[in-house]
C-alpha cells in the first residue's frame, strides 16, 4: 500500500466537527498562550532568585529578603529563615500574611501598597520595630489593634490610606492602645496627643492625674446635688515668723505646712534696659544727648 493508503483520515464527531489530527512529536505545537503561573511557585522562584543574587548558601544565613514589585498574590511559608530581620513585600497583590509564623527575629516589615484586609498572625512577631501597612484594605480598627498590642518594641507604624482611618478618633485610638509607638503615619506622636487620648479614652486615669497636688492625692470629686464645701480659713501658728527661712516649726496638720510654705516663695527679679535713655543714631550724630550710661529697670515679684 502506498503512502496515500497509509494516511489516517479524520474521524467525524457527533457534532459534525472534525477531530484535529495528532501532530507528530517532531513538530510540537507553537504559538499557544501559556497558562498563568500559580502563585506559590511564583513566590518560590522569586525567593530562590534573591538567594542566588545575594549568594546565600544556607537558610540560617538569610537576614533580609527583597520581594517587592513581583506581582505576588501569595507567599510560601518563610519559617525556614529563622534569622530573617528585614522583609520587603510592598507593591504586590497580597491579601493576607499567613506566611509569617516563626520569624521571631523580624524587626522591619514593609507591606504597604498591597490588598491586605486582615493581619492575623502578626502577633507572632514580638521583635517587630518598623511596620508599614499603608495603602491596603484594612477595615477593622479593633482587629488591627488586637494584633499589634503585644508588640512592645514597635516604634514606627503607618496605617494611612486604609478604610479604618475614617474612624473619627483613629489617631488617638491607636496612640492609646499602642503607647510605645513614637512615629505614626510619618508624624511623631506628641505629648499633647498622649494627654488628649487619656482624657478621651481613660476617664478614671485622667481624674487621678487631675487630682494630684503637692505629691499627694486630693478629693477632686464633684456632685451637683451636694452643697458646696467651703474650706475653713487657714491660720498661722503663733510662733511663725515671716521671711524666716530657717524656721523649724512642726505642724500637726500637713495642710498648714503647705499654706505656710506658699508664703515663703522666693523673690523673682526681672531687669530690663530703659530704652528711653539710649540715644538713637541721629541723636548720636547731632550730639543732642550726652554719653550718659543707659538706665536699667528692675521689677521684683514674690
Overall pLDDT: 75
How far do the termini sit from each other? 129 Å
Largest sheet: 7 strands, mixed
Question: What is the rounded Rg?
Answer: 39 Å
Instruction: Encode the helix/strand succession as letters.
Output: HHEEEEHEHEEHHEEHEHE
Low-confidence stretches: 1-37
Q: Per CATH, what is the topology of the domain at 42-203? A: Leucine-rich repeat, LRR (right-handed beta-alpha superhelix)
Shape label: elongated
Task: Give the CATH class of the domain at 42-203.
Answer: Alpha Beta
Report the strand count.
11
Structural category is alpha/beta
Strand content: 5-15%
**CATH homologous superfamily of the domain at 42-203?**
Ribonuclease Inhibitor
Q: What order do the strands of the largest sheet run in, or round the barrel if closed?
A: 1-2-3-4-5-6-7
Q: What is the CATH architecture descriptor of the domain at 42-203? A: Alpha-Beta Horseshoe
Helix tally?
8
The share of residues in helices is: 10-25%
InterPro entries: Leu-rich_rpt (IPR001611), LRC72 (IPR042655), LRR_dom_sf (IPR032675)
Biased composition (Basic residues): 1-11
Region (Disordered): 1-41
Protein name: Leucine-rich repeat-containing protein 72
Amino acid at each position: 500500500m502506498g503512502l496515500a493508503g497509509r494516511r489516517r483520515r479524520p474521524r467525524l464527531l457527533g457534532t459534525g466537527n472534525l477531530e484535529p489530527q495528532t501532530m507528530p512529536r517532531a513538530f510540537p505545537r507553537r504559538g499557544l498562550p501559556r497558562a498563568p503561573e500559580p502563585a506559590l511557585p511564583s513566590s518560590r522562584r522569586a525567593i530562590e532568585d534573591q538567594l542566588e543574587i545575594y549568594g546565600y548558601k544556607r537558610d540560617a544565613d538569610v537576614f533580609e529578603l527583597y520581594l517587592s514589585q513581583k506581582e505576588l498574590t501569595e507567599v510560601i511559608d518563610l519559617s525556614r529563615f529563622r534569622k530573617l530581620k528585614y522583609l520587603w513585600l510592598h507593591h504586590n497583590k497580597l491579601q493576607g500574611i499567613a506566611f509569617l509564623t516563626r520569624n521571631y527575629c523580624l524587626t522591619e516589615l514593609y507591606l504597604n501598597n498591597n490588598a491586605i484586609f486582615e493581619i492575623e498572625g502578626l502577633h507572632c512577631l514580638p521583635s517587630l520595630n518598623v511596620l508599614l501597612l499603608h495603602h491596603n484594605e484594612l477595615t477593622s480598627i479593633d482587629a488591627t489593634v488586637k494584633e499589634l498590642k503585644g508588640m512592645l518594641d514597635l516604634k514606627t507604624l503607618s496605617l494611612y490610606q486604609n478604610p479604618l482611618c475614617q474612624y473619627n478618633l483613629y489617631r488617638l485610638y491607636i496612640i492609646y492602645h499602642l503607647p510605645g509607638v513614637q512615629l505614626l503615619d510619618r508624624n511623631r506622636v506628641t505629648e499633647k496627643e498622649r494627654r488628649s487620648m487619656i482624657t478621651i479614652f481613660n476617664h478614671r486615669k485622667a481624674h487621678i492625674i487631675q487630682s494630684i497636688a503637692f505629691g499627694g492625692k486630693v478629693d477632686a470629686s464633684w456632685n451637683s446635688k451636694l452643697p458646696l464645701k467651703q474650706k475653713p480659713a487657714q491660720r498661722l501658728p503663733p510662733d511663725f515668723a515671716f521671711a524666716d527661712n530657717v524656721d523649724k516649726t512642726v505642724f500637726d496638720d500637713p495642710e498648714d505646712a503647705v499654706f505656710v510654705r506658699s508664703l515663703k516663695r522666693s523673690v523673682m527679679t526681672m531687669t530690663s534696659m530703659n530704652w528711653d535713655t539710649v540715644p538713637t543714631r541721629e541723636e548720636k550724630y547731632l550730639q543732642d544727648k550726652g554719653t550718659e550710661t543707659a538706665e536699667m529697670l528692675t521689677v521684683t515679684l514674690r
